[in-house]
Amino acid sequence: MISYFLISLLTIVQPQPETRQFLYAERLFDQRAYRSAILEYKRLLFYRPDMPKADVARYRIGLSYYHQGDRKLAQQKFEEVMRNFPGSPLNLQAQLMLGKIYFDAESYSTARSTFFAVANTAGDEEIAAQARYLRGWCYIHEQAWFKAIAEFRTVQQLESDTPLSQASARLADLTYANTPLPFKSPRLAEWMSTFLPGTGQIYAGKLEKGLISGAISAAIFYLLADSIREERYVDAVGICLVSSRFYLGNRINAREWTIEHNRQLEVDFIRQLKQQARDITPSTL
């Protein structure tokens, strides 16, 4: 009788096959063996689509695809979690990850809207803070500096003395101190090169190219003036026709190099902000 009782107890306590398979899939996921984890989660869902942790399995599949770089399949799985499990605590997490996918694709307006919905719906201040933090990064990429600062300050209000709030405080301070960025005017560069070729390039930070352009323009002007002075009007017309393309290109290059200068300035600043954030919270972006 006692042996029968012990056998029955072991049968009850021993994990069921689906539980063992789920734990195995979780271990693969924790070990970052994402491809194998996806196969195990999918196998489990194929045989037990109504299992108690179906939302977790589908969410983990989405995360695995995301970490593998397959944003399209990850998006499908996160949308599936949101659609099929509206009451799940993972619903907001899936929506947050969906916003990250939009952010990675540089669809900052869509990402902002998604994070806004998460922040306003979340009863959990930690999730709301994450959404506000990422929303602030959307504004950074859109050069809406004061809105970004406001979002980072909101994170500090939602959380205190956490790595995320510390990163937000540093980002808000840096953004406030360094913006607006000292962009240069592409139109001004174009007009500078119109009246004095080469000066627009120098203004854009291309000193060597500006000096070369100025020297070539001076040589062309000298040849043109010499042709007119010696009444070689046919040569003068030829010089004008040949040099006009260089002159127009000089103006265009001044504008484009100024735009490039501004873009690089923005890239360097955002890189600096990301580095500051990673020093405190390595996994935020």
Biggest sheet layout: none
End-to-end distance = 60 Å
Mean pLDDT: 87
Strand-residue proportion: under 5%
What order do the helices and strands follow?
HHHHHHHHHHHHHH
User: Which term fits the overall shape?
Assistant: elongated
The helix content, as a percent range, equals over 70%
Gyration radius (Cα, Å) is 30 Å
Number of helices: 14
Structural class based on helices, strands and sheet pairing: mainly alpha
Total beta strand runs:
0
Q: Enumerate the spans where pLDDT stays under 50 for 5 or more consecutive residues.
A: 1-15
Q: What would you say this structure looks like, in words?
A:
- The protein contains 14 helices and no strands.
- The chain has helices at 2-13, 17-30, 34-47, 54-68, 71-84, 90-104, 108-121, 125-141, 145-158, 163-178, 186-195, 199-203, 207-229, 233-280.
- The two termini are 60 Å apart.
- It has a domain at 186-275.
- The longest helix has 48 residues, at 233-280.
- It is mostly helical and 285 residues long.
Which labels suit this protein?
285 residues; mainly alpha; 14 helices; 0% strand; disordered N terminus
Produce a short descriptive summary.
The protein is an all-alpha fold and 285 residues long. The protein has 14 helices and no strands. Helix 3 (34-47) packs antiparallel against helix 4 (54-68), helix 4 runs parallel beside helix 6 (90-104) and helix 7 runs antiparallel to helix 8.
Summarize the helices and strands and which ones pair or pack.
Elements: H1 2-13, H2 17-30, H3 34-47, H4 54-68, H5 71-84, H6 90-104, H7 108-121, H8 125-141, H9 145-158, H10 163-178, H11 186-195, H12 199-203, H13 207-229, H14 233-280
